[in-house]
Write a structure and sequence with these properties.
The protein has 22 helices and 15 strands. It has 504 residues and is α/β, with parallel strands linked by helices. Helix 11 (297-309) runs parallel beside helix 13, helix 17 crosses helix 19 (422-434) and helix 17 crosses helix 20.
Length: 504
Amino acid sequence: MGRRTSTENCPQAAIAFGSYRFLPRKRLLLRGNEQVRLGSRAIDILGILLERAGEIVSSAEIMSRVWKDTRVEGATLKVHIGLLRKALGELGGRSEFIENVAGRGYRFLAPLQRLVDRTANADEDGADGAASRANRVIGRQNALEELAALLTKERLVTISGAGGIGKTTIARVIADRSRKTGLPTHFIDLGPLSGSASFVSALASTLGLPARRHRRSEIATFLSGQYALLVFDNCEHVLSEVSQLADELLARAPNIRMLATSRERLQVGGEHVYQLGALDLPRPADSLSASVALTYSAIELFVDRASSVVDTFELLDSNVRTAVEICQRLDGIPLAIELAAGQVAMYGLTEIGRGLNNLLETLTLAKRTPIGRHRTLGEAFDWSYRLLSPLERAVLRRLSIFPGKFNHSAAAAICSESQVENETIVASVASLVKKSMVFVDNGDGRLRLLETTRDYAREKLKKAGEFQRIAELHATYCCNCIAAEEVGWEERAPGSGSRSAAIS
């Protein structure tokens, strides 16, 4: 049972302020019809402040009611107040709802209106329950705004990025917002499809066309005079089919706009690619307090999801380093962070930090997800791995031997120990870059694998029985590089003292 605040004495009352509604009985905060995701402590604090709106509530009273049997420091309350204010959109020191009265406590400022909570007796599995199950999208406001702006100018936008980066989540939010504007919007999940015929059939069904075998040209004709947004999710395995339809719609349906999610671009004229990156992370060397760490979206997501499964979970100065290391090790990838946070109830924060090397095998979602392959991080990578050619799989496996960045010549030296020519290896690496499996560092142009990708590929390397041989090739390559550097030093510095100076 969750903790209760006294606002629940009026279970049928919904409390409205600004653009928000607070449903005490369900411990739920809504902005419009969308849930504002809050941890249980923040919900308790909000309930207390609303109950005493207009009055100053002391920090001691709030802490005694929210943390009844636990002794906490004032800094802990400040962290949760900060999260609550951020969720309410209070930025840059502007206090629209919650005022900090120095030395005395906090006061809720906005006028309230009590409404009848029409969702109080609603079926939790029905439409009203959907809002309570929705996850708040964290750290993606800029991406959502930029993509919305792009779609007003471009007719075909592809969201590209690594597996688990959140492409589908962003696409669904954009589709939902588009529907609310009144624009006909069709979301087509391509994940379960197997080829061209099933793609056209799924699209025709989504558009409400009669149940029969359709051709791509017929769909283009049907859409030619319409205004609509088509969202194609998970295009990788039917890339050719989506590309051909997109090309035809760009030519024949001037009022149709398209949003696609894919690990690689559709390669259609007029396509605008939006590269979705990881969530914000502090630098590895940074030493942060809990309150500062929460200003990074990766840490905020971890804490948000962890507190949703463990009511008592707190990010404190004493455990913030472990949480930051987990998010850094997971490259700021939302899916990986959510999976890790979901295990806090079972293993605890410290044990998750210790077991990072086995995350790909052990992390699972406690709840069902819409797409089965995303129930574990390993399954998300399996999806991409199966779509690679045999040569691309071999190259990816072998690149996992590099612990950090590497260049093209190093990749060729490690991967071309067979009869395959170096040029073919370079082409395969370039293809992996296009498919968001390998990344190019913008600073120095060198290549790298995400930590999570490296762990996955290295397991594949071991299962293929190649690890020992590739490790030996890597060691030989490193020794050759060192020997070449030594020769260079000797040629550049003939004096006996110059070499030691260069080494030091």
